[in-house]
Structures are given as C-alpha cells and as structure tokens.
Here is the input.
Amino acid sequence: MAEVTLTGVSCAFGGNVVVDQVSLRVPDGKMLAVLGPSGCGKTTTLRLIAGFEQPSAGEIRVGDRDVTRLPAHKRKIGFVFQSYALFPHLTVYDNVAYGLRARHAGEQEVRRSVGEALDLVGLAALAPRHPAALSGGQQQRVALARALAFRPAVLLLDEPLSNLDAKLRKDMREEVRRIQLEIGTSTVFVTHDQEEALSISDEIAVMNDGRIEQVGDPVSVYKSPQTAFVADFVGHAVLLPGTVSWVRDGLCEVVVDELGPVRSRAADRLGAGERVLVTVKEESLHIGEPDGQANGLPAAVETATFTGASIRYACRLKDGRALHLLTGSDGQRRQPGDEVFVRWEPAAASAIPAGQGRRA
Here is the structure.
C-alpha cells in the first residue's frame, strides 16, 4: 500500500489548461473522492496518476517513488474504467487474469490471485462466463476484480457506477467501500455524484475548472464550504451577498443586499465591513413567523409540491432571488401567493468572503 501525492500538477491539451496546479494527498489506505462537474478535470487528474497522460508541470509520487515520468505499466496502479473495458471474447476468469499474464506471472500465481479476486467480489461461480452473459453490476465487479488481482499499491476508479441504475448504484457503492476497507488499498474515486462522494470516502476534493476548491472530510466539506461553488455544488444552497456589520464568538451579522440583516457562523479572520456570501443549505430552511428575534427573510410562495412525506416549496425573496425548502406534509399547507417568513438557525449558515466566490 502507498500514499499518493500530487504537487503543483498541471496538464494542458492544445493550449487548453485542463488541470491547473493541483496538489493532493491520498493517505495510505484511505479513499479520496474527487468530486466535480463534467469537464472540470477530474478524470484527467486520475489519468495523470495512472500514467495515461503526462503532466506539463508538477510531481506525482506513489509512496517514496517519483512516478511523474514512469510508464503506466511500471506504476503498480489498478484502474477501473467508466465503461469497464472488459474483453468480450474472454471469460470472466481470463479477463481478471489478463493483467497478471501481461506481467508474466506464472500460472500457479494466476490461479491463486484470480481466485482470491473473484472471491473478494463474490463472482467465483461465474468464472467461466463471458461478459455478455453478465448484468451491469456483475461486469462492474469483474472490472474491479481485474484491477485488484495483481495487488496494486493504488486503486483508481473513474466513475465506475455511472452506468448502473439507481438502486444497483447504491448497493454497489457500499460494496466498493467494503472491498476497499477490506484490502486497505489507497484509492482515488472520481465522481460527479455528491451523494456517492459523501457516503463512501474518507476525504473529498471538490474540483472546478481544473482547480481544487476545497479538500476535507465529508462532514466539513458539506457543512463548512469555503467557496460559493462548493456550497452550491455539494448540496443545494441559497447564496446571499451582503456586508458584515459585526463579528463575535464565532457568529456574525450580515446585512444582505436589498433584504436586511441575518446571522450566521463566521469564517476565520472575518471582520466588520467585509463583503461576504451567506450560504444556507436548503434542508436547513423552514417556514415560520417573524418574532423580532428570528433569523430569516420574508418571501412569497410560488409553488407547493406534495411528495408524500414532505412538501417542497419554491419561494421568491423580495429581491427576486429563488429558494427551495422542504417541510413535513402533516403541517399547515401553504398556497402559491402566500407571504411567509423563511427561517434558519445561525449555526446552519456560513459567511464566506466574497473573494472566494464561484469561479465557474
């Protein structure tokens, strides 16, 4: 097993910078999710670690080895492709054995390693089948077994669950996490699905426009976003621009443009007079009544959608800004056109310096 370290890594294609000064560390035995929208550079970052692409700047290390210019087949890295890339003319057994044979392993070692890999993913009984006779989930397991059969120091997963239906995707991400914890291989998992990243990773690196916006454990990335992009991409958030009027004891008051004062948690070194964005996750919002002390803003209901256990409201603030919130379906049902007061607890909001806003 080995730690993976990227330091100032960049990559450009035809003058277009795809990965821009990326620095990351994947601790030995941990799983890092690289999360971001399509085209943000996350798959290219994965391919740089694997050796399928070459960086224009920076250094890549696996353990104590500098692998920046090392050919892919010498890096001892397992790669699971988004399309699985199984050989249709080979059986499950031979697909899993392919990498071992390419490395000139003896047949006794091949039998042992393939057997262990197939046992690990629960497919030993399907070894004689061909990929066409397998379900999508089974094909994904074969691709994972093939990547693990030669005992890689690092495992790379490029959106391997994106071709599965919703239920199977949820089941398989739990299976991937189980296997990763069992084998203890340092793993980088690329995805655009925030729920996937939050549920199975030890750390998340949020990527946007070729750069890393924030790295941290899932709870801190979700609850304490450092940029407007992270706040909006990792869970839907309302972003309210304003000016800080006071800061004390970790809280601040912000006068939101055209709307008035609200309170939230304050970022480090935030001071009075600074321009900020107050970010509040939609699930932290609720409808209440103004009482002189309440933290919130007046709004008008535009739509109310019954979803069974809850009602989803689309509201419009006085400045024209839209927001959404969920309430229980057993309370008072608000109607389009109703004037309401949208509230939240100060501790559920974050004030981010406006200079750290969205780059996309």
